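Lab notebook, bench 4. Still working through the backlog of constructs that have no structural model yet. Next entry is a single chain of 86 residues. Request: give me the structure tokens for it.
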Amino acid sequence: MKDRDVRQLEIGFNALTPTMIEVPRRIVVSAVKIPESSDVVMLIAGSTYGRWKKEEKTFQGIADSFEVKRARTQQSEGDARRQLLQ
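Model written out:
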């Protein structure tokens, strides 16, 4: 993981299919605090446990690539709308 304000959590659990069969799954959650905001956004990447074992580096790469530059403010969104209407 890069040196950023990111928290990662790897989770294993069993999901139930519609036919009530348990399927082991594995996910990685990346949480990033938005600069200049109190908000946090999350990216979740995962699969069945069997596929996770084969593609763990891919899922970790997805999680590591997640970043947030900055959040739009309501004022900046309003300015953008006004510019479009002109």
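Notes after review: The mean pLDDT is 82. DSSP finds two helices and three strands in the chain. Flag for follow-up if needed.
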